[in-house]
Amino acid sequence: VQLQAYGGGSVQPGGSLRLSCTTSVFKLDHYAIGWFRQAPGKEREGVSCISGSDNTTYYPTEVAGRFTISRDNAKNTVHLQMNSLKPEDPAVYYCASASGCEASMAEFGSWGHGTQVTVSS
Question: Is the pLDDT of residue 1 over 80?
């Protein structure tokens, strides 16, 4: 079972994109959903997570204040609103599920193909 991530594209520095993550197979609100990114030549890193228990959100320092994760349970979708995009943000962005946001990356599952984000002037 794979989650579908979409909404990527190309924007100028300072621009915004909203990514979405969804599936028709299971209810996302039963799980923690994390967003991750991987740039060429770099390791995959987490950029946000929303817990399944109480919707607590988590962000690393690099994106805090710029990225916002949220749920739309009616559409079984988790969004990642990305504002003030920087030249260091380009990557393939993935979403995945886990029992909790404290899970290690290896414990996240249902990885999909990801969506490409490009930031260039």
Answer: no
